[in-house]
Every structure is written in C-alpha cells, then in structure tokens.
Amino acid sequence: MTPQHPPNPPQPHGPRLLALRALGLGDLLTAVPALRALRRAHPGHTLVLAAPARLAQAAAATAAVDQLLPAQAPGRAVPARLDWTGPPPDLAVDLHGNGPPSHLLLHALGPRRLYAYAHPGTPHLPGPAWQEDEHERARWCRLLRWYGTPADPADLRIPPPEGPSPAPGAIVIHPGADAPARRWPPGRFATVARALHRAGHRVVLTAGAGEGPLAHRIAEEAGLPATAVLGGTTDLPFPRLAALVAHARAVLVGDTGLAHLATALDTPSVVLFGPVAPRLWGPPQGPRHHVLWHPGPGDPARPGDAHGPAPDPRLLRITCQEVLTALDCLPAPHRAAETVS
C-alpha cells in the first residue's frame, strides 16, 4: 500500500497528537500501520512521536510523524518523564506497552483523550483487552479500531530513500542483535557469507554501534575485505542504511530491527527466529520473506527469553544449508537495478 500524506498540513499552533513508542527501530517500524492510521484520522493535528532521539530520521521516513519528542529508558522500560511543553495533547496514544507506567505517564500530561489498552491498575481508562499472543502490528491497529479509528496492519511500507546505496545489488547480512539469545553463531554467518561470496554475490555486513569487532571477525573468516563491513563504531545513519536495504538483492538477519526495515522497504529477506515465534514479530507471509524457526513440540509463542545470555536452542537448530537454500529461493527485487549479474 502506498503511503498517503495528510490532505491538510498540520498547523504549528493547532492540536497535537502524542504517540508514545520509546523503543527501538524494529518497534517503530511495526507501529507504522498505527501511526499512519492516526495520521489519516487526524490530518490537521501535529503528530508527535515520543521515541529515542536516534530514531528521528527513521520517524521522518515513515511519512506519518511530524515531530519527534526525545524519550527513552533502559531496555524496554517506560521513560520516567516526557519533556512536553505547551498545552496538553488533544490526543495521547499509548503504543508503548500495557500497564500503569506508560498509561500514567501520558495521563499526567492531561490529554483531552487517551487511547490505551485496559488494565486493572488504571481502571479509569477504558480500552480493549490486551492479548498476549498477537502480532505486534495487529496489536496496535486493534487498539485504534476499538476507539473507532480504521487501521490496517498491512499498511506497513515506507517510501524508498532518495539517496544512492553504498552497495547496490549486494546481499546484506546483519549478524548482530541486542541480546545473545537472538544472535545466530558468528561462525555460521561466516560460512554463509563465504559460500555467497564464492558463488559470485557481493556480500556486505552491517554492524550497529559496538558490533564492529563481531562483523569484522565474520568478514575475515568469510574471506571478505574489511570494506565489506558497514558501521560498527557507530550506527549507520538511517538514510544510508535504508538506501542499502532498499537496493539490496536480499537481507539475511535475525529477529531484530533490520528485519523490519527489509519488510518496510519490501526487500526480500531471510529472517532467523529463536526465542520468540515469527507469528508475533515476523514479516508478512509471502514469497518475499522467508522465516526460519524450529520450535519444539508444544512450544508456545514465546518459548524462550528474548533477552537471554546465550543463543536460543531454536535458533541453533537452523543450519547454514537451510539459510543458503532460503536465500536462493527468494524472488528478485522489484527494482531491476538491484539484481546481481
């Protein structure tokens, strides 16, 4: 679905809508359908997103957010405060979680209306019942629909970036994740990268801040030059990262933010899952995105600790040959210039 800009630009001194989603890149991208629904429903409002400052460019790229209010907390906690100034929000929407900390943080601003899931700790706030086993994109769209705002979980694309890719047509491998439980072993990434390189593909590795040593170790083991690693000391600037993914042949990644960026840009991907089921955080079903996950008999949707200190057993069941086969089965990108000769 093509993103739609609001028919009337928001007025700088008009009503403001505040959405709280003070989490990571993947969390922001899974909230795009909800943010876009809010944008359509309130075209005259200035839509303010409370999120970490590092996501300012990503938030702007959604074509739904007008301003970013810097807000963050360690891990997935709720920020202690919001530096909101001026009149209270016309509408505040809790897209962060389900519980008194985020509810009360927004309620303290005195919004005229507040959308949130129901919770016994905040009985004064109406809302739908929280469902644990629900995809993240669907969760926030269901919240808005309960309040009468149409929202489509499939409305998740973001416009492609205008800048050039630093490695057009490459297969992009992102070996990092913010917890060891979701990191496939480096040696397996190296085996896959080496096989792709020998088969004639251009391979690049992306690394977030502090992930440089991991990516360079994999590149060296795979026989790739040091220049094949992008980022590492700091995060890649979002426009550069988005251009890389948008013009990639394919993306190989674990259950992390870059997987959601590939989905948002409609780039073919192979996504490796471990402690959390893809039905909660995975890409849409279809040939452009291949999910690999090996749960045990009777495993629930969250069979492991997504923030655990060691690779999840379900992740370790994924073999290098499975990954190579999945990559080989992906369709070509939509943009002809991205194909590898």
TrEMBL record:
Gene3D superfamilies linked to this entry: Glycogen Phosphorylase B
Annotated spans, Disordered: 287-313
Biased composition (Low complexity): 294-309
Keywords of the record: Glycosyltransferase, Transferase
One Pfam family of this chain: Glyco_transf_9
Keyword Transferase: yes
CDD domains: GT9_LPS_heptosyltransferase
Record InterPro entries: Glyco_trans_9 (IPR002201), LPS_LOS_Heptosyltrfase (IPR051199)
Name of the featured protein: ADP-heptose:LPS heptosyltransferase
